[in-house]
Amino acid sequence: MERKYRATAEDLKIIERFVKAVCVRHAEEPLVKERWYGAKELADEVNGKVIQFQKVAGFELAPRTRPVSVRIGVVDVGLASITADEFDEDLAVPMLTELSVEEEKSSMSGRFERRRREKKERMRLAGVLADRVIDSKCCDLPFEEASGLQLDWKALPVGLDPSMGCLYPDRSSRKREQVVGMVAAVLSAIPNTTESRPPTVVDFGAGSGHLGLLVGYMRPDVKVVLVERRSGTCGLARDRVQALGRKDRVEVICGCIQEYDGPCDVGIGLHACGALTDMIIDFCTTRNCSFVVCPCCYGQIAGAEGAGVGQLPRSHDGVGGVLSGDEFRTVASLADYSVVDGKDGFEYSQRAEYRIARACMRVVDTDRLINVRDTFGYAVSLSRIVPETCTPKNSIIIGRAKTR
Questions:
Q1: CA 20 to 30 Å from 90, out of 38, 201, 211, 399?
Q2: What separation in angstroms does the CA of 63 have from each of 21, 60, 204?
Q3: What does the radius of gyration of the chain's CA atoms come to, in whole angstroms?
Q4: CATH class of the structural domain 121-400
Q5: In the chain, where are the structural domains located?
Q6: What is the pLDDT of residues 320-341, one digit of tens each?
Q7: Closest by alpha carbon to 167, among 30, 343, 352?
Q8: pTM of the shown model
């Protein structure tokens, strides 16, 4: 049962109390019964109704929040703050469902179990499809063995250390390993300096410059450009560049990849999220420059975020000859793998799932590289960041442009 209801300023105070008082993610958590009745009491003050923010038009949510999902007093996410002016819109207000905590626990448990079964079946199907591509042999690509580059971080300027600010020693060492693994691959792709100008390496999605700054330190003759769209992070990058005394060789540009129109000999990216990997590849191939990218968030290209990457799969005579578009999207959507990250490090929670995810990553990266090879004549190869324990997303895709 639903009706339209216009919230008053007094209602907003009650709702704010309600949101702040209830913060329960799952009904199995301790004190859920107490919080359930507390939520119900507060909800009764708004005519016994629970506000369910699903589609709210006409106002913006507080920063770093999303619509509140309220179901019989179990709140997933709360609003940080909301004013009467912001709330001056009609909202759908469903009646409070009289359901016991035990019934809700049983209902939620059933839903979670169903989702687990569905995910397991999708993983199985994705594994079958990925194996079909890998076994076809039409998609074999050269593999470059990971370099054993070793750095004595104590001998380097402190500003280059990507572990600065890490809370846990284990995570600190992994961040170092990720950056060093990428630097080794990038250095092998940078051309020699000529009399006309030094090579330019452009780090897209550079963050505060961990990768690009170390590349510039290892190759002081190279011009490095850090492209980052977040203004706050750009400020951190500029501070690091100044502290390292590299303003003459390192430039920070605050903007998107589409806004950069300067020189580029090698485009790079560490954990380039979703379609950013494909944007880097497109940027480089249109300018006949090389690229070295460690992709991340593979699943995004299978959804709305991947709308700009074009038809999938890209390699019509490669992966496209083995998988349909829908099959490829299934593989891409299961190529992401989450780990449990904490002060004692992380574990790959399900080894069988990880093996399937790795195979799916390989299919997506293979499709990208075959398209570049066949369309633009690039020399392409796969590599990886080692050790594998530093990140589950350790694939590196490399494309070397034809001689200019």
A1: 38
A2: 20, 9, 26
A3: 25
A4: alpha beta
A5: 2-99, 121-400
A6: 999 999 999 999 988 876 554 4
A7: 343
A8: 0.71
